[in-house]
Design brief:
alpha/beta, Rossmann fold, 15 strands, about 25% strand, binds magnesium ion, Glycerol-3-phosphate phosphatase
Length: about 300
């Protein structure tokens, strides 16, 4: 069922979104030629697909929709599709994937202006003094010149960032997420480090949602205009604000990363509309549709 909800937070600001139980009605209107799908919190939780997600993708494909995975994962697109396949998703249902890691790889390959690199022969250095930029793609370890990773606490990584900020070393963030849902637990992600770095006065190049670049690449991949696409995601800051900035309509999945804030305890539980509205306003995000999960 589709119903229109109108909530008036202030006399000047009327916000509208449609509440849906699943995507069937919307998919069957064929209103959107392309669907841009977030993976973590929408299709799977990092360990397993959400109930109904695989069947929903199959039905959406039958409706003729072109589907692109858009993800803030620091993995390359091909690795992401391989992981999706291992989780039970059929890669042939998708036109492809655009990931933060893929965008970062391309950026480091093509942009040798501010950052001087020889191709992608990246050399990890021992001292901050020798570094030309910081590549943030994790939060639990520091890369070593040997190629290994030295486990490190977040507080200690932040101390290194303080030193980097005084040296004005730019950061490229290859996964702008703040946290991720992993089997229902929240884990800190590189976006948190990048925010800290900006607070310290550091310069950050955000290579993913909510940046427009990931939506533009997805539109290119699917061959559609913004008006022909809808982006589905569970993060108001990343997925919904990103879609807003790119001029793409969006569907907010409430049982993902914001589930606890919305008082949701079980998969598929329907969120209170006024709570969704209040949370969306807090993030300055405007979803076109709101639904509990990526279900048909
Ligand atoms: Mg997500």
């Amino acid at each position: 069922m589709m119903s229109k909800c109108s909530i008036v937070p202030s006399p000047n600001e009327v916000q509208l979104f449609h509440s849906l139980n699943g995507i069937q009605r919307l998919a069957e209107t064929r209103r959107f030629k392309a669907w841009f799908l977030d993976q973590f919190g929408v299709l799977h939780d990092g360990k397993q697909p959400y109930p109904g997600a695989i069947a929903t993708l199959e039905k959406l494909a039958v409706s003729g929709a072109k589907m692109v995975v858009i993800s803030n994962s620091s993995r390359r697109a091909s690795v992401t599709m391989e992981k999706m396949k291992n989780l039970g998703f059929d890669p042939s249902l998708f036109v492809g994937a655009i990931t933060s890691g893929e965008l970062t790889h391309q950026y480091l390959q093509s942009d040798r202006g501010a950052i001087s690199l020889e191709g992608l022969g990246l050399q990890v250095v021992e001292n901050v003094e020798e570094a030309e930029f910081i590549l943030a793609h994790g939060t639990e370890a520091l890369g070593q010149p040997s190629g290994s990773a030295h486990p490190m606490k977040l507080e200690d990584l932040e101390k290194i960032l303080e030193l980097c900020a005084t040296k004005r070393i730019p950061m490229v963030v290859a996964n702008p997420d703040f946290v991720t849902v992993e089997a229902r637990a929240l884990r800190v992600m590189p976006g948190t480090l990048a925010t800290k770095y900006e607070e310290l006065g550091g310069e950050v190049r955000w290579m993913g949602k909510p940046g427009k670049i990931i939506y533009e690449e997805a539109m290119k991949m699917a061959g559609v205009d913004p008006t022909d696409a809808v982006a589905v995601g569970d993060s108001l800051h990343h997925d919904i604000k990103g879609a807003n900035a790119a001029g793409v309509e969006s569907a907010f999945i409430s049982c993902g990363i914001h589930a606890a804030e919305l008082g949701l305890n079980s998969f598929g539980e329907v969120a209170d509309i006024s709570l969704v509205q209040a949370l969306a306003s807090k993030f300055d995000a405007r979803p076109s549709y709101v639904l509990p999960a990526f279900i048909w």
